[in-house]
From TrEMBL:
Cleavable signal peptide: none
UniProt xrefs under InterPro entries: Glyco_hydro/deAcase_b/a-brl (IPR011330), LamB/YcsF/PxpA-like (IPR005501)
Alphabetical list of SUPFAM superfamilies matching this protein: Glycoside hydrolase/deacetylase
Protein's name according to its UniProt entry: LamB/YcsF family protein
UniProt-listed Gene3D superfamilies: Glycoside hydrolase/deacetylase
Any one Gene Ontology BP term: carbohydrate metabolic process
Pfam families reported in the protein's UniProt record: LamB_YcsF
Length: 144
C-alpha cells in the first residue's frame, strides 16, 4: 500500500479507471490455505504477509483448520495486515475448485459457519474482519 498522497502518478491520472486520485492500493493475498501438516505455496505465507496490506484467510471448508487460522490471524496482527474471510465450498479434497450442487440455504449456512469461526478467532486476538472474498468455485457460483 502506498502512503497517503504518495501513489505513483499513473495511479493518480484520470485515465486510470476514471479516478482523479487514489489514496492507497490494497495488495491482497489468499492465506492460511494449508490443512494440518500440509501447506500450500511452499509454506511462504508468513514471509509473504510482510508485503501485503490485507489477507483472505481460508475458513476451513476448502482449506485451513483452527490452528492454521489462528496462526495466520496472529501473524496478520503482528504485521498490521487487514484480515478477511475466504470461505469456500465444503470441498477439502478438491481444494474448493469443484462446484457443489447444494440448496441455497445450505450454502448460506456453510458460509455463515465459516465466517463465524474466523470471526471468533479474530476476536480472540482483538481484531475484526474487514472483508469477505469467496474462494474458487464458490466465487464463480456467487458471481452468476
Amino acid at each position: 500500500m502506498f502512503p497517503r498522497g504518495q501513489a505513483p502518478a499513473y495511479f493518480q491520472s484520470s485515465s486510470f479507471g476514471g479516478a482523479t486520485s487514489m489514496q492507497a492500493v490494497d495488495f491482497n493475498s489468499d492465506m492460511g490455505e494449508g490443512f494440518g501438516p500440509w501447506t500450500i505455496g511452499d509454506g511462504v505465507d508468513f514471509d509473504l504477509m510482510a508485503y501485503i496490506s490485507s489477507a483472505n484467510i481460508a475458513t476451513g471448508f476448502h482449506a485451513g483448520d483452527p490452528g492454521t487460522m489462528r496462526r495466520t490471524v496472529e501473524r496478520a496482527k503482528q504485521l498490521g495486515v487487514g484480515i478477511g474471510a475466504h470461505p469456500g465450498f465444503r470441498d477439502l479434497v478438491g481444494f474448493g475448485r469443484r462446484h457443489i450442487n447444494a440448496p441455497a440455504q445450505e450454502l448460506v449456512d456453510d458460509i455463515l459457519y465459516q465466517l463465524g469461526a474466523l470471526r471468533e478467532i479474530a476476536r480472540a486476538q482483538g481484531l475484526v474482519l474487514q472483508h469477505i472474498k469467496p474462494h474458487g468455485a464458490l466465487y464463480m457460483h456467487l458471481a452468476r
